[in-house]
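User: Reviewer 2 asked us to show a designed sequence for the structure in our supplementary figure. I'm pasting the structure tokens here. Could you produce the per-position amino acids so we can include them in the response letter?
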């Protein structure tokens, strides 16, 4: 069985956090779902950034808050893995 990639593992952690702490019960997101389209607003995204800081040890600078980096949990996981090795 292939080992789960870092990006997949990070995306799974992000999805779990978002579904447990942001999304309404019964309306979970998946790793490729558009976060804005799912209703993740700026305050909710701040919670996600705080989670990233706590779990992965860095703050995402404003210049990296590009749609390509934050459109979905998978996009954000890719950014985290490019930025530095996930914990």
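Assistant: Here is a per-position design you can include in the supplement:
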């Amino acid at each position: 069985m292939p080992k789960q990639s870092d990006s997949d593992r990070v995306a799974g952690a992000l999805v779990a956090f978002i579904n447990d702490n942001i999304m309404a019960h019964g309306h979970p997101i998946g790793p490729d779902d558009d976060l804005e389209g799912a209703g993740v607003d700026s305050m909710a995204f701040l919670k996600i950034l705080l989670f990233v800081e706590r779990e992965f040890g860095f703050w995402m600078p404003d210049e990296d808050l590009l749609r390509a980096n934050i459109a979905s949990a998978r996009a954000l996981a890719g950014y985290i893995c490019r930025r530095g090795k996930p914990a």
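For the response letter, you might also mention the following. The radius of gyration is 12 Å. The first helix runs from residue 6 to 21.
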